[in-house]
Design goal:
The complex is a heterodimer of chains A (160) and B (315). Helix content of chain A is 33%, strand content 18%. Chain A has a five-stranded parallel sheet with strand order 2-1-3-5-7. Chain A has a two-stranded antiparallel sheet with strand order 4-6. With 160 residues, chain A is of the alpha/beta class. Chain A has helices spanning 2-11, 29-32, 48-56, 88-100, 112-116, 147-158; strands spanning 36-42, 68-70, 79-83, 86-87, 106-110, 126-128, 138-140. In chain A, α3 packs across α6. The longest helix of chain A has 13 residues, at 88-100. Chain B is built from eleven helices and no strands. Helix content of chain B is 69%, strand content 0%. Chain B has one domain (3-314). The A-B interface holds A 2-3, 6-7, 10-11, 13-16, 31-35, 37, 59, 62, 64-65, 67, 69-73, 75-76, 78, 100-104 and B 26, 29-30, 32-42, 44, 47-48, 50-51, 54-58, 204-207, 210, 213, 217-221, 224, 272-273, 276.
């Protein structure tokens, strides 16, 4: 009762928008049990995608309500959220972060740069796309992707 | 120790194991709502634990047996206290010898084992977290022990059950200045021991500001599930002890089934209220700088000391 009172009091000040119907979950969603811990790795991003990730976890999009959370350690993570083209300097840290994760482990390539190097394709510092270094399970297109698209992609993991 | 007291102990253990993660989830949900978000459902910590239990267990290179043992010690010590402490009932097993100081030190074994495991990982953040956690622990213990002394003055006994029973029988004890000052110190101690704001931000992912989170950075899978469960059990136990020292109403005074059911409901409600109150406090406060923490904890110590002095003077 206290919760519902508190809920009705705070709902008026709520800024997050209602969620549309959940998209089709991916096959691995069964093992995640509606809970998704993400470890974010910036492999050479321009920080445009990082601003959108910050938006996704802000009150407006509120990814925590679907069971997703950013964590501080790859040991705690279910999925690696990689942004940017993989630079030569970040290729080995990215791979080591991936290997530090407990299995089953997933990789999300977020943004056009992570998918195919985007505008940085062929640049001298770029080693390749994320898929050239670690196996990618899901790609989120966009430069940068809209927070709505990121949220929709994460909902395919948490099935909520 | 007879069958009835064993059953009450098992009931309390089940309450703490099931309720601990829910308390954590409740506090996160309340915080989210106050921030204008929907937040995760209250059952989210249980979903996390269920998922983690089925994941791979990883171990840092060159770690010893301490690393895998620490989560077990954490849960085992919390479970021991959950069985013995007066949470839902005044008739748990071994009630004649449940010493308050012993309860505190059993809980302390859990936190020290986690700090040792963090050192055992050999990582920079583990060592930093262990150093910070034990520094805070060393400042918390004196305040806690002096607060126990203040609470034990009226009875000349540090038996935890007797202290709660006295408050339950004579409400005048609960509003005594010595009791209130000791509980004021308890508030500071509980916030520090359970890693809540303003001592530590439980939802941070910035490694440099972490205290308790830094201890568990290397745990994964079932080990992390145990750590999450153990820490939420400890949170529930601290809150349960506190609410029963503030307002022991509803606690079962004999081993009847109905009385214990009422006791369980009463303590669950009171702990939930305490959780909501702490969540309200947390959204309105900022984390203290690490070097300001000794001032806060010294304040807690002074409150407890004043409790002892007033208790001794007013006798």
């Amino acid at each position: 009762m206290i919760l519902s009172l508190l809920g009705s009091w705070t709902r008026r000040r709520r800024v997050s928008e209602r969620l549309p119907a959940a998209p089709t979950p991916i096959a691995a969603a069964v093992t995640l049990r509606h809970s998704l811990q993400l470890r974010h790795v910036d492999a050479g991003s321009c920080n445009g995608c990082e601003m959108e990730i910050a938006s996704v976890f802000s009150p407006v999009y509120d990814a925590e309500r679907i069971g997703a959370r950013l964590v501080a350690s790859p040991r705690h993570a279910d999925a690696l959220l990689v942004t940017g083209p993989v630079t030569h300097n970040m290729a080995s840290p990215l791979e080591r972060t991936y290997l530090a994760m407990p299995e089953p482990r997933l990789v999300i390539a977020l943004g056009d740069c992570a998918r195919d190097c985007g505008v940085f394709a062929g640049a001298y510092a770029v080693a390749g796309a994320v898929a050239d270094v670690v196996p990618v399970d899901l790609e989120i297109p966009g430069c940068p992707p809209h927070p709505d698209d990121i949220l929709a992609a994460l909902r395919r993991f948490t099935d909520r | 120790m007879n069958l009835a007291s064993l059953l009450t102990g098992a009931t309390q253990l089940a309450l703490v194991v099931l309720g601990g993660p829910l308390l954590l989830g409740l506090m996160r949900t309340v915080r989210s709502r106050l921030e204008g978000r929907d937040g995760p459902p209250v059952s989210q910590p249980w979903r996390d634990i269920a998922k983690l239990a089925h994941k791979q267990r990883t171990r840092p290179n060159e770690s010893s047996w301490i690393f895998p043992a620490a989560p077990l010690v954490l849960v085992a010590t919390a479970a021991t206290v959950a069985v013995l402490a007066p949470l839902a009932t005044l008739t748990p097993p071994l009630s004649a010898s449940t010493d308050f100081i012993a309860v505190i030190f059993v809980l302390l074994v859990g936190s020290v084992s986690l700090a040792l495991a963090a050192l055992d990982t050999g990582t920079a953040f583990g060592g930093m977290g262990a150093s910070r956690a034990l520094t805070i622990g060393a400042l918390v213990e004196p305040a806690l022990l002096v607060a126990v002394l203040a609470l034990s003055l009226p009875l000349h006994s540090t038996n935890l059950i007797a202290i709660v029973a006295e408050g339950s029988a004579h409400a005048s004890v609960l509003v005594g200045p010595s009791h209130l000052l000791a509980l004021g110190s308890f508030v500071v101690v509980i916030l520090a021991e359970s890693g809540r704001l303003p001592v530590d931000n439980p939802s941070t992912h910035l490694e440099l500001t972490m205290i308790y989170e830094a201890l568990i950075l290397e745990y994964s899978g079932p080990d992390l599930a145990l750590v999450t469960l153990g820490e939420s059990m400890r949170l529930a136990i601290w809150f349960g002890l506190f609410v029963n020292l503030v307002a022991p109403w509803g606690i079962a005074t004999h081993a009847g089934a109905l009385a214990i059911l009422l006791g369980v409901l009463a303590v669950a409600l009171k702990v939930a209220l305490a959780g909501v109150a702490v969540a309200l406090f947390e959204v309105t406060t900022a984390k203290l700088r690490l070097f300001r923490l000794p001032e806060l904890l010294a304040g807690g110590f002074i409150l407890a000391l004043l409790g002892v002095v007033t208790g001794a003077v007013m006798r």
